[in-house]
């Protein structure tokens, strides 16, 4: 893999407050770890939680033991890390030139020239192979369902050039786990339950990715990158509040269809309060505030999962 020195030097010159554990690795390895975003857990958690919701809800509906939850949650956590890293590589390969022109993304390894396109492609192949191997640990139905999402994963970066709603496309591919989790447990999908869950999670992606991408609105408009941040304009807060209400309504409806009790809905309520608080406190004119929304949104995913898991524990007592 061809490695240049530019971004390595930039990373090594960061202030100590900006350094991450990745900087402990040799300079030849470091840029690939940054390319895969392994230093930032936000994306992995946002990809993981819909899987965890689905697994836990399926175990609740079919009376599976708690140990089944831990088995599949562990598998999906590993898969979330691998597929999120692969997705970041694919995204950066598509956006290399635009990233180089935007200050926030100009130090990304591909944009800065620290990793070549060939190096990125060579790095991507084993990640995809590992991801497919993880899917192969599931039943045949789940394997086919999982592989059917790869087209969306590859096409998503192009959507930023052809539609004003790339966040909606991201939501459709990023939350496939809301279907796959249940399929892995029971070998089938109860569409009445998991389509609302999937659509709720997809709307959640619109909320957090629009909030996060707001910091790049001016640059996106300048370089022709389309985004909901541009079309929402100054009405971003009330529009995202509406989408947040849709998220909570759809997730709650999925829980109702699955026969859940009060712990599940308490979890959704806690998540809703967190989204409302986060939306009220975010300063959409401040880049740091927008950046912080990504990891903070993972708490919504946690509260929904915690409610579903508590409901399962109560049922198995």
UniProtKB/TrEMBL annotation:
Keywords: Isoprene biosynthesis, Membrane, Mitochondrion, Mitochondrion inner membrane, Transferase, Transmembrane, Transmembrane helix, Ubiquinone biosynthesis. GO terms for biological process: isoprenoid biosynthetic process; ubiquinone biosynthetic process. Pathway: Cofactor biosynthesis; ubiquinone biosynthesis; Secondary metabolite biosynthesis. It comes from the Eukaryota. GO terms for cellular component: mitochondrial inner membrane. The keyword Signal does not apply. It catalyses: an all-trans-polyprenyl diphosphate + 4-hydroxybenzoate = a 4-hydroxy-3-(all-trans-polyprenyl)benzoate + diphosphate. NCBIfam families: ubiA_proteo. One of its GO terms (molecular function) is 4-hydroxybenzoate polyprenyltransferase activity. It is found in: Membrane; Mitochondrion inner membrane. Catalyzes the prenylation of para-hydroxybenzoate (PHB) with an all-trans polyprenyl group. Mediates the second step in the final reaction sequence of coenzyme Q (CoQ) biosynthesis, which is the condensation of the polyisoprenoid side chain with PHB, generating the first membrane-bound Q intermediate. The chain crosses the membrane at residues 45-63, 69-94, 115-135, 141-159, 168-189, 195-215, 236-256, 262-280, 292-314. This is 4-hydroxybenzoate polyprenyltransferase, mitochondrial. Its cofactor is Mg(2+). It is a multi-pass membrane protein. Belongs to the UbiA prenyltransferase family. Its EC number is 2.5.1.39. Gene3D superfamilies: UbiA prenyltransferase (1.10.357.140).
């Amino acid at each position: 893999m061809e490695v240049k020195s530019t971004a390595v030097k930039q990373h090594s010159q960061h202030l100590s407050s900006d350094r991450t554990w990745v900087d402990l690795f040799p300079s030849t390895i470091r840029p690939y770890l940054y390319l895969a975003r392994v230093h930032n857990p936000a994306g992995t958690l946002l990809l993981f939680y819909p899987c965890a919701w689905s697994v836990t809800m399926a175990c609740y509906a079919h009376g599976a033991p708690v140990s089944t939850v831990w088995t599949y949650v562990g598998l999906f956590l590993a898969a979330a890390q691998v597929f999120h890293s692969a997705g970041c590589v694919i995204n950066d390969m598509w956006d290399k030139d635009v990233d180089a022109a935007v200050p926030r993304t100009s130090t990304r390894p591909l944009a800065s020239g620290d990793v070549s396109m060939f190096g990125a492609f060579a790095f991507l192949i084993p990640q995809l192979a590992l991801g497919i191997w993880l899917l192969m640990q599931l039943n045949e139905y789940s394997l086919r369902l999982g592989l059917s999402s790869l087209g969306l994963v590859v096409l998503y970066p192009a959507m930023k050039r052809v539609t004003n709603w790339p966040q909606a496309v991201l939501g459709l591919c990023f939350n496939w786990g809301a279907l796959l989790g249940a399929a892995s447990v029971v070998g089938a999908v109860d569409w009445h339950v998991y389509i609302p869950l999937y659509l709720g999670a997809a709307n959640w992606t619109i909320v957090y990715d629009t909030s996060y991408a707001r910091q790049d609105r001016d640059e996106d408009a300048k370089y022709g990158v389309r985004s909901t941040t541009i079309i929402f304009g100054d009405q971003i807060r009330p529009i995202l509040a509406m989408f947040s209400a849709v998220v909570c309504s759809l997730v709650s409806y999925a829980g109702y269809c699955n026969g859940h009790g009060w712990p599940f809905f308490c979890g959704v309520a806690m998540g809703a309060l967190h989204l409302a608080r986060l939306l009220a406190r975010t300063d959409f004119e401040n880049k740091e505030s927008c950046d912080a929304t990504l990891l903070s949104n993972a708490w919504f995913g946690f509260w929904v999962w915690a409610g579903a898991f508590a409901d399962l524990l109560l049922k198995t007592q």
